[in-house]
Amino acid sequence: MADAGRSFHPSARGRGRTEWRALRLLRLLLWVGTAFQVIQGAEPELHACKESEYHYEYTACDSTGSRWRVAVPHTPGLCTSLPDPVKGTECSFSCKAGEFLDMKDQSCKPCAEGRYSLGTGIRFDEWDELPHGFASLSTNMEINDSTNESTENCTLSKWAPLGDYIASNTDECTATLMYAVNLKKSGTVNFEYYYADSSIIFEFFVQNDQCQPSADDSRWMRTTEKGWEFHSVKLNRGNNVLYWRTTAFSVWSKVSKPVLVRNIVITGVAYTSECFPCKPGTYADKQGSSFCKLCPENSYSNKEETSCHQCDPDKYSESYTNPARGPLSSRSLSLNRHTHP
């Protein structure tokens, strides 16, 4: 006979197991919550961010051409209580050359002495290594189906950074220096080049993001007869890909002289929020400079100088270009002060 105080109906046993599992789950949640509170209490409280611990950035532009200025900590999770986002300048806003955009009050201010800015431009004048964004590619123009030897020989044929300029290849391969840039407005690309050997074919051209070349008749560069030459090409708003391309043809086993390129300047890019220091051998003697002046012969300067210093009586510095030796670098001008023989 069954016990009147107990029920062995299957549904009753199921309810008992469910209640027991729910009780275990509740106890587990209570334990996790307590542990989380202990761990959270052990973490140090974040302090309010100081001005030196964050910087300002702009958000991406929306369809109306507007953006917001937001504060971003240098190290995520270091501090809290950042300034609230505020309405930013219009996306088309830019500062003039010689100025920078002070993100604190979103106004243009002149560069200090010894520094310069291009406004909405970027400059590449140091070539100790290939700058970020550049690429150097090589190909072989000869078609040889029987062997890949000629193609493999071009692998190392590239543009080489050499301090104050970048040099092309001198073998019978085609070497291409490339740089892609997105312009906020129409701009230009300017550069200096040294092209003394006609046994090298040198071309410069620009393509947009549809791989369409710009309508410019100056694709094929002319050899330089008096040292460095200046070249300028207009750029359209949007994506632009710049190409410097060389191919050498050996004549009577003669070693070709490389093409040299330096001081590449691109205008029309986004704003600059800082000014850049003048390089050794140059100076800026007034506020709001858009470039740094070269030190005259027999003088020198260090980085971020406002004037040049006269060489000691028993020393000298060479001029920027020496016809007898070819192009000299600004680094040679500023640092290589030789004793007279």
UniProtKB/TrEMBL annotation:
What cellular component GO annotations does this protein have?
extracellular exosome; late endosome; lysosome; plasma membrane; trans-Golgi network
Top-rank taxon, per record: Eukaryota
Q: Name one GO biological process term.
A: positive regulation of vacuole organization
Keyword Ribosomal protein tagged? no
Q: Which residues form the signal peptide?
A: 1-41
One Pfam family recorded for the sequence: GBD_ELAPOR1-like_3rd
Q: Where is this region: Disordered?
A: 319-341
* InterPro entries named among the record's database cross-references: Elapor1-like_3rd, Elapor1/2
Q: Where is the composition biased (Polar residues)?
A: 329-341
**Can you give the residue ranges of the Elapor1-like galactose binding domain?**
121-270
Sorted keywords for this record are: Signal
Protein known as: Elapor1-like galactose binding domain-containing protein
- What is the scientific name of the source organism? Molossus molossus
